[in-house]
Amino acid sequence: MDILDPLFIAYLNKNILKSSEQLDLNICSTPDSPFMDVNIIKQTNRTYRIVGMLTIAAYHPDQMEESPDEELKKKNLTPRKKVQLDDTDPITLRWLENGWIMKEIRFKKDEKTVESMNYRMGYRFHCFMENQIQKKKHAIHQEIQKWNESAASLEYNLEQEVFCNNKKGVQTLVILINQSFDQEHEGIEVSPLFPDRWSVEKRLKFLHFVVAFLQLAFYKTNFDWKEIGASYYQEIGGSKEFDLYKEEFISQLEDWAQCPVDSLGLTSLGRITPLYFSGQIVGRFSTYHFGPVHALTDLAIDEEEYSTKATTLWLVENRAILTRIAAEKGFLKETNSLVLCVDGHLRTSHRRCIQQLLKSGSVDQVIIWSDYDPDGLQISKELYTAISQFGSLFIKWITHKYEVISNWQQYEQYMLALLKHQKVEQEQVLGGVNDWKTWIAH
After folding, report:
1. DSSP symbols for 7-49
2. CA 380: distance to chain centroid?
3. How far apart are CA 298 and CA 356, in angstroms?
4. Chain-centre distance of CA 153, in angstroms?
């Protein structure tokens, strides 16, 4: 490494040197040595004090590796991070010799006794990682351009004939695709249309998936999973392009389309999503009365328009709560309650059914009851978001101490405070009839 390189010196000044420190660039090094020792000094008109020393690689390009190994990458080094490594380990010496790391020694006031010794990210490693970031950004930009071209080729208007059974679902997908069209890296990265945890690469892959899906849905009544990737990529292995994210992509596409993928033409999945419940529900083709636990399917929900005369709607996370309440004979009828179980995850069909029931107008309060863990908090948030558009509702959450909270922000704060210390499963807080009646009346 050229110690006089102004970019290298700027890197050290920003990340290694402390206030008032500088490098002593009068270096004496052996020509064949793989290392150079550079003193860190504090200097005034009257004093000159050595406060530390950096051991860095002497720059011999013909002898240096082109990229760091995976073991070093796993250290998650950053310019300001300090790590402890074994000085005698040949791997450490090799990393040092190749400029991937540098050794920082700090002296006590006598300028000789070692106070601390750490390894830091070398400037060469820093440059390598910055270059990788730029390559990644360029690749993402190229992928965005490629996707924009694919999306633009759809040539679809909202009035044209669609061969799948659910034209409205296709129209909804097209509208969302148009919202994503021509966005740059940053826009896709922060778009609320995707799950927060998804990377930009995964979001782009999903956008490709939606376009691939629509290209078939426009012109075919039925198609299977393998056709989506095969027809889109038209190359060997194309049919497997989306396999890694199959379940997530199908679930997200249903979220966007607000209907099951079966109704959009995707067949051969062999999947039916149930919604378990107990209480009174009426549809065009079926009627359910107070009594045992029943189940609606996602396909039925898509075809039906369900309503209820219940005044209290319970939205619970786990089947154990549903079966326990349903087993208490007379409770649901006496309190005019309906209990729905989202079974650990709020699916598109669940959301659609809940909103159908609320539109019937008889429900005046909703009790949300989920696990007291991070997933339970997320489910509570999703349920609240799904019903918050119904402004006249009185919404309640149940705490692990059998208390009622009627404000989302307050419940979220309660949960975040609780999760710092413990997690509680919903089944541990079953309560009984008297507790349930108290919550309803609260």
Report:
1. HHHHHHHHHT--TT-EEE------TT-SEEEEEEEEE-SS-EE
2. 17
3. 13
4. 30
